[in-house]
Amino acid sequence: MKCFNHYNMDAVGLCSQCQKAGCRSCLSDVGGSLLCVSCQQWAWQQEQQRAYQSRMQATLQQAETVTKAKRAIRNSWIYTILVTLLCGTVPLLELARTYPLILLGYPIYVYCIWSTYWVWKPVYQGWRKLLSGMGCFVFGSPMFVVFYLLLFTFWIPAMITGIYGPLGGGFKEYVKHRKMARSQAPLYPIQY
Ligand SMILES: [Zn+2]
Ligand SMILES: [Zn+2]
Hints:
single chain, mainly alpha, two-stranded antiparallel sheet, 4 helices, 68% helix, binds zinc ion
């Protein structure tokens, strides 16, 4: 058998893509399979296309991460302002008329509200994962069922949120989101 390109040369093998017979100079081993020159070009283009698509996807994902983190940071301030104003501030100011020193505790109160914003989601997600991992059993009278459901789906994670947030969990989540919001998006991929 002769090479498809050089009629005077003996073929050394077949292209794994187009099955054409080629000589030593017309076939090359690409990743363990023989390819002719035109199929090598085709494979290279496919590879470029794949690389382009994965870069494109990474760019979009990155942009989404940044947007989400920025939104979370903005919402954390709205949440903190609303919650501190709606509950706590009025009775606190009322009390401060008699005990002015109580105002010193106000920043701590605001901090606690702010920190719980950041941890309630990871805490609830972690808690649900834990429960589904254990295979939670509920038994007893309907009243107890309601009690257990509230306890396990609401009170316990709410307690964890209230403790873990102020103890540093909130700050940790905030720093994480700040980093995400500032992370540099990769350069927009260039079309080939
Ligand atoms: Zn080929
Ligand atoms: Zn050849």
